[in-house]
Write a structure and sequence with these properties.
The complex is a heterodimer of chains A (199) and B (375). Chain A has nine helices and no strands. Chain A is mostly helical and 199 residues long. Chain B starts with 6 loop residues before the first helix and ends with a helix. In chain B, 43% of the residues are buried. The chains are: A mainly alpha (199), B mainly alpha (375).
């Protein structure tokens, strides 16, 4: 009963917030609704007993990715009205994407309810989510896992290479030099004659 | 290991578990609500005490008296300040996003309190003993930044916005190194459950993760190899905690000499009070987390025997350690000058992150190597 109520509450929140991501006039509000969607999805994961994925979703997407989204969107200087003008012309493309996703979801649901797929709930209640994940990731899917890590590394290096530029005339500070400074180097006592100045 | 069973919350939790078995969720919800209220009320009272302690310590370092007018020794100063804030007018700037402007401090306060749900303050004294408690705390502390970003943006003003951007960059940066530091503790305990992490450390300060001087443990003499690494990790965690809570010397989001008061500039009255409150609850949370992860939680540092066979309650030890860490927070605030922003970022990304990564490699290698030999 409680679980059913919670499920419908979270599911409704997720869908309504996802709709508002598109419908909101202000892009910052859109990002806020996106965060709410992530949150509701995390709640649904917890209901399914996948608490590890749920917290990972909150940590990675809400705690890091959405913060960067918010950063970019807050600092953009865009005319919201102008941005919304082509809204209706994109509608067919959006509908096609929505239709494809709907079809996929129906197929997944059909496969699940026909009993052809594995269960999403861990079979052994004594083993935690985390241990099962570790076992599967580092044994059955070790190759794929390492490959994913490699792809991320390449992406990271690529991002750094793209944004790294040599800037001339920028004065930088060497922290080691600063720490190694002594009082003798930094302070000079000068006895100035009255009315003379340092000249 | 003899653990004194304390009836209050232990009994409540056990009843709660029994009740869940009968699927009587109404009673269960009532019990948990009671525990949550107990936590929130004690935290609120503690914040009042801590704000005063903070000011008194700061004053003592500067050879001042500190607040000493309201109540005996100024004990009621915080209450007076809080009342003053409550009765002030809430000023909402004209160009601000009103809904988000009010939402921001509420969000910050909720996140700060919610993280306490998994913190065990004594054996069995925890609202929810989930098996990935560490992740939960990390996730919620990474959400605390939203209160500040939204507040800064919704104010529609220069200084708050710059303060918010600084704060977000700072908190996201230090979260990365905090994650790696906690990872070393998780390797040593073999669990993400906070209660298990405390239990694997045991009584006696030589068993705690920060010192690890006991060669008779699971890792044998390898313990001495990772002892300096873990001590260093403890120090890094403390400094990262300062940055994570925007405390001096890392209080750049509200650096008053450059940004007036950072993200709080446009806030007044109760919303400001909520930001203020959330900050202190977060400081307490990170002190408690450091107590749990590195200082053995509720375990006694040395065997203390009292007359009549009494024992010091585990909660008292937990409280004393957390209070000591808060004292350190206050001392740092009084003694250390503020960092410059680029120095702060350099420290986080170029010093803390690489060393924490190296420590993860060393600790995990030693743990795997030692357990291979034992088998």
């Amino acid at each position: 009963m409680l679980i059913a109520i919670t499920f419908y509450l979270l599911a409704f929140t997720a869908i309504a917030a996802a709709f508002m991501v598109v419908a909101a006039r202000n892009p910052v509000h859109s990002v806020m609704f996106l965060i709410l969607t992530f949150f509701a999805a995390a709640g649904l994961f917890i209901l399914m007993g996948a608490e590890f994925i749920a917290l990972l979703l909150v940590m990675v997407y809400v705690g890091a990715v959405a913060v960067l989204f918010l950063f970019v969107v807050m600092m953009l200087d865009v005319d919201f009205v102008e941005l919304k003008q082509g809204f209706l012309s994109y509608l067919p493309a959006g509908l096609i994407v929505a239709f494809i996703i709907l079809a996929e979801m129906i197929m997944v649901g059909a496969a699940y309810f026909s009993g052809a797929s594995k269960t999403v709930v861990p079979t052994d209640p004594e083993t935690s989510n985390l241990e099962r994940f570790g076992e599967v990731l580092y044994t059955d899917y070790a190759g794929a896992f390492e490959a994913a890590g490699l792809v991320l590394l390449v992406a990271m290096i690529g991002a750094i290479v793209l944004t790294l530029r040599e800037r001339k005339g920028v004065r930088t500070q060497n922290a080691m030099d600063q720490i190694a400074r002594t009082r003798e180097e930094g302070v000079e006592l000068v006895d100035v004659e009255p009315g003379q100045g340092l000249g | 290991m003899s653990v004194i069973q304390l009836p209050v919350m232990q009994a409540a939790t056990e009843t709660a578990i029994a009740v869940v078995d009968e699927r009587n969720w109404v009673l269960w919800t009532a019990l948990k609500t009671g525990q949550v209220l107990l936590f929130v009320l004690s935290l609120a009272l503690l914040v009042a005490a801590l704000v005063l302690a903070d000011r008194k310590i700061w004053a003592a370092v500067q050879m001042r008296r500190g607040p000493n007018v309201v109540g005996a020794f100024g004990l009621l100063q915080t209450i007076a300040d809080a009342l003053k804030f409550f009765f002030k007018e809430i000023v909402i700037p004209a160009g601000s996003d009103k809904f988000l402007f009010i939402l921001a401090p509420v969000l910050g306060l909720i996140m700060a309190f919610a993280a306490w749900a998994v913190v065990p303050v004594a054996p069995g004294w925890v609202i929810s003993d989930i098996n990935i408690g560490v992740l939960y705390v990390l996730a919620l502390s990474s959400l605390g930044v939203y209160g500040i970003i939204i507040g800064g943006w919704a104010s529609n003003s220069k200084y708050p916005f710059m303060g918010a951007l600084r704060s977000a960059a700072q908190m996201v940066s230090y979260e990365v190194s905090i994650g790696f530091i906690i990872l070393t503790v998780i390797f040593l305990s073999g669990s993400m459950n906070l209660t298990t992490i405390v239990d694997t450390q045991g009584a006696g300060f030589w068993n705690w993760n920060m010192f690890r001087l006991n060669p008779t443990g699971d890792l044998g003499f390898w313990n001495w190899l990772i002892a300096p690494v873990m001590f260093y990790m403890g120090v890094l965690f403390f400094i990262s905690a300062l940055a994570e809570t925007n405390r001096p010397p890392f209080d750049l989001p509200e650096a008053e000499s450059e940004l007036v008061a950072g993200y709080q500039v446009e806030y007044s009255s109760t919303p400001f009070l909520m930001f203020f409150f959330a900050e202190y609850v977060n400081i307490m949370l990170l002190s408690a987390m450091m107590t749990i992860l590195f200082l053995g939680g509720w375990h006694a540092p040395i065997n203390v025997s009292l007359p009549f066979g009494w024992q010091v309650l585990p909660f008292i030890w937990f409280f004393l350690k957390t209070a000591f860490l808060f004292f350190m927070f206050a001392m740092v605030k009084a003694i250390v000058p503020r960092y410059r922003y680029d120095q702060l970022m350099r420290l986080g990304w170029k010093v803390f992150l690489p060393t924490a990564l190296a420590a993860v490699v060393i600790v995990s290698t030693v743990v795997v190597f030692a357990s291979d030999k034992a088998v």
